[in-house]
Amino acid sequence: MKTTDLLATAVRNTFRSKLRTTLTVLALVVGSSTLTLTTALGAGVTDYVTRQVAALGADDVLVVTATAQDTSDGPAEYDPDRSTGGAAAAGPMAGPPGGGSLDDTSLDDLRAVAGLSDVEPIRTVSVDYVRAEDGGARYETTIAPTSSIASSDLAAGEQLDLTGDEPELVLPEDFLEPLDLGAAEDAVGRTVVLAVTDVLGEQHELVARLVGVSNPGLLSTGAGANNTLVEQLADLQGARREQPAVYSVATARFDPGADDQELQQIKDDVAAAGMTAQTVSDQLGIVTTVISGITGVLSAFAAVALFAAAFGIVNTLLMSVQERTREIGLMKAMGMRDGRVFALFSLEAAFIGLLGSGLGVLLAVGVGAPLSAWLAAGPLAALGGLDVLLFQPVSLLGVVLLIVAIAFLAGTLPARAAARKTPIDARRYE
Amino acid sequence: MNTSDGPVPLLELQRVSKWYGRGDGRFHALDRVSMQVAPGESVAVVGKSGSGKSTLMHLAALLDTPDEGRLLVDGQDASGLSAKQVAGMRNRRFGFVFQQFFLDPASSVLDNVVLPLTIAGVPAGERRRRGMAVLEQLDLADKARNRSTALSGGQKQRVVLCRALVTEPDVIFADEPTGNLDSATGAVVADELFRLNAEGGITLVLVTHDEDLAARCDRRVLVRDGRLGDSLVDAA
């Protein structure tokens, strides 16, 4: 039998017992739609996190902190040369707080490490409030400590001019309305006032120009400031006195083309100097681990459903083989080879799999796409740009292929039973 | 004594034995049976139910393999043929007409008739042409598009006959071809079979316990308890 005839016969046979096929397909639809939704969920969240990280534009940045010297249990003893009193602001690239501190010697050590460039200490400033230039309510804000090296996920305006002399600021979009700055496009170019309190308890205000408006996101908490603004704020905060050169965090760049081995070498060199270097993805590792854990558990449920559905296919086809004993015997009497009989029933199983997975994927997309849109517009609007369910054509195709393969495998058992029937069996069956 | 005279027999069984079951239940279905079928002749295999006549036909039609003895097709030992060659021989050279119709109710009459051609991998156009030709031959062309469920018993058996003929076989094996039909329609099917034998030169191996049908064959072979009785050659 030609393969095209075999395919056509398999498809026609599938529709011969419509109720039975429908029930088997329904079981597959449950499994395939669940699997489609879980993979879409995993893809959606991972994509969001990846875009957030990409928005930081810091693929080539290492965040360096001092390695805690005291590895024994309990609190570390105070050392005036090393302690910083804790990190001022938290952020994705702020590093673990309270681990120790870096001084100019450590920075020199870093500069000596091969493969590192642009070693810069990060000065942390704590801003009291931000307000519009013409008065009005004052709102608390923080300056992301690494904003001067990373880029922001912008809704309007442009990235900070990192080397410019003008103090520049990027504010999250949700500040615009309280500060009465209007729409994002209109707000760009306006000036706002920031305030800091110095070590003597005196409050100072500073005017900065808003160059960009950032999307609210998981990682971009707080405002961004360029070097000039951070310097000016830090000077005000330090009451223009000489501060001991102590930093909690430093950043350095490495060659973005470096492979894992070279990167590990750099990290080892930094570790040898008594410091810890992490890339942005190292710091986000925990987030991605949690996400893949959750989607893994959900996918396991889908796998259980598919496993059960596979038994449904075996059962359906075994019944079909039994019913069609006479037909199989006739076809074999007429010279149909065992292999072709096997192929016929396997193809019927695969076609049932194709029907079930196709309908399941369509159902999942049909329900999931509006649901995702509704979530993005409603409950999850605060996380701009998050598509909870991201349906990627490749993964949809993957789900279909996986289920067709499972169905095909499930079909081999009944197909073997069919291939073993003989024309004589068919005659005895009368 | 087997091959000395005349043309090479189309089919020849040489001391063929077949057992079913094992142990105490072991049953000698055929006991050293020898017979020949010459090209173009019609042979009736007669006997009581359970006598082994169907087993004899299965072996002769290569549907089953003998436990002992040899089967020759055109003088060639069938045990030397591969599974593929056996399947091909059944497909091209043998036609089967059984008591049960074995028609696929979900397919059209034409699709049922061309099933052996489909199995052989004949292209769709040629299948259709040859299927329609054989349906016309048996006055069933107007039923080609019908479902087989819509046909009467006699029509169904004639469709089965068309299916057996579509590959233009050398020999037709018919097991109780009229068993499910009333005498009038049974006679129509029988007439058709003997017309094919007489006009088309198709060899006929007919398994039946219908005496009238057996009497119309050139030769009758009686099977009793797995052994052959005397072959009777009809004067007619």
DSSP strand count of chain A: 13
Rg of chain A is: 32 Å
Number of distinct beta strands of chain B: 11
What pair of chains forms the biggest interface?
A: A-B, 26 and 29 residues
Which geometry of chain B do the CA atoms define?
globular
Multimeric state of these chains?
heterodimer
Beta fraction of chain B: 25-35%
- What share of residues of chain A is helical? 40-55%
Average pLDDT of chain A, rounded to a whole number, is 81
Structural class of chain A: alpha+beta
Radius of gyration of chain B in whole Å, from Cα? 18 Å
Estimate the helix proportion of chain B, in percent.
25-40%
Main sheet of chain B, how many strands, which sense, barrel? 7 strands, mixed
Give the N-to-C terminal Cα separation of chain B: 25 Å
Q: pLDDT below 50 for ≥5 consecutive residues: which ranges of chain A?
A: 85-99
User: How many alpha or pi helices of chain A?
Assistant: 11
Structural class of chain B: alpha/beta
| Fraction in beta strands of chain A | 15-25%
The biggest beta sheet of chain A reads: 7 strands, mixed
SSE order and pairing:
The complex is a heterodimer of chains A (430) and B (236).
Chain A: H1 3-14, H2 18-56, E1 61-66, E2 102-103, H3 104-112, E3 116-122, E4 129-132, E5 135-139, E6 154-157, E7 168-172, H4 184-187, E8 191-197, E9 203-214, E10 224-225, H5 227-237, E11 246-247, E12 249-254, H6 260-272, E13 275-279, H7 280-323, H8 325-333, H9 338-377, H10 393-420, H11 423-428
Parallel strand pairs in A: 7-9
Antiparallel strand pairs in A: 1-12, 1-13, 2-11, 3-12, 4-5, 4-8, 6-9, 7-10, 8-9
Helix pairs in contact in A: 1-9, 2-7, 2-9, 2-10, 7-9, 7-10, 9-10
Chain B: E1 11-20, E2 27-37, E3 42-47, H1 53-60, E4 68-73, E5 76-77, H2 83-93, E6 94-98, H3 109-113, H4 115-120, H5 124-137, H6 153-165, E7 171-175, H7 183-200, E8 203-207, H8 211-215, E9 219-224, E10 227-228, E11 232-233
Parallel strand pairs in B: 3-8, 3-9, 6-7, 7-8
Antiparallel strand pairs in B: 1-2, 1-4, 4-5, 9-10, 9-11
Helix pairs in contact in B: 6-7
